[in-house]
Write a structure and sequence with these properties.
8-stranded antiparallel beta sheet
Length: 298
């Protein structure tokens, strides 16, 4: 089925997407979803599939399993049985069958050794839904705040190599933070965008994971590849991205393409960086918040 052009996606169906994403543990039936859309229940499921190129039941199932996969990979202190219940399965066995069907690994095996190369491939259709339900507009001067970013000491772990394997480095970083009692609620999280993945050979790809902390590095930390990085005091253009990471590149592009040329500003001598304010799967995908900072010349 070929989806309709983006301009035809009505707000009423975007409300449905947002409602599903916010209520994955107890998604209502088609009649209730049709009511949220103020649409005939006799035609709702066909219209949903026509707009997003995926049946609503399949969308719900994939969203639940995608959140479960993130929890298995990055919330290693959460029990698998709890993840199964949150994904809408009454027994761990039913969850394991559904998970293995799309990942070719049991939840236990996935948690122990995820297939990082392919772990997001089953959810490619969700990227289309996310793009089509996105209501981002071109940033105007009012959307961008030019701020004085304070000098901030961070401890960083860089990912080097193919972007597909980034999840492994993220998990190592999360485990280190947990062991050092630096949760995101107490210590700000940063990403340093050292290069553009589309213009960088996979072997040369570098992506920084950082946490703001006054703690000093130990020898063991250094042996793990962690290092101290001082984010300098600098002027920055700040754009708040609300929504999926799958669309964050579009926000950065609009910042460079649409705002920067008409701003009379010049980029400074430091890479683009992000501050993660709230994270998926801790919040629904469309509610995740990331502040994008573009350093500017003084």
């Amino acid at each position: 089925m070929t989806p309709l052009p983006d301009a035809t996606i009505p707000d009423r169906f975007i409300r449905v997407i947002d409602h599903i994403d916010s209520h994955l543990e107890s998604v209502p039936g088609v009649k209730v979803l049709a009511g949220i859309a103020a649409y005939s229940p006799y035609h709702f499921h066909r219209q949903f599939a026509a707009l997003f190129d995926i049946p609503v039941a399949q969308y719900v199932r994939l969203m639940r399993l995608r959140r479960a996969a993130h929890a298995l990979a990055f919330r290693t202190n959460q029990q698998i049985i709890e993840i199964a219940f949150q994904a809408g399965y009454e027994t761990p066995e039913a969850f394991a069958r559904a998970f293995r069907k799309i990942h070719d690994q049991s939840p236990t095996d996935f948690r122990a050794a995820p297939d990082w190369e392919n772990w997001q491939a089953p959810y490619d259709k969700l990227r289309t839904v996310r793009a089509r339900s996105n209501r981002m507009t071109t940033p105007s001067v009012g959307d961008i705040a030019v701020i004085d970013f304070p000098r901030t000491r961070t401890i960083c772990l860089d990912h080097h190599g193919p972007q597909a394997h980034l999840g492994h480095t993220i998990r190592r970083f999360i485990d280190w933070r947990r062991a050092h009692h630096l949760p995101p609620s107490k210590a700000a999280t940063f990403n340093i965008i050292w290069c553009h993945p589309d213009d960088t050979p996979p072997a040369d790809f570098r992506f920084g994971l950082g946490v703001a902390t006054p703690n000093r590095l130990t020898a063991d930390d250094a042996n793990m590849g962690l290092y101290e990085l001082m984010l300098p005091a600098m002027r920055c253009a700040k754009l708040r991205h609300i929504g999926s990471d799958q669309m964050i590149g579009d926000s950065a592009l609009r910042l460079y393409r649409d705002w920067l040329p008409q701003s009379s500003e010049t980029p400074g001598d430091f890479p683009l960086f992000f501050q993660r304010v709230s994270f998926y799967p801790d919040v629904p995908d469309h509610e995740a918040i990331t502040d994008i900072f573009l350093p500017l010349a003084s």
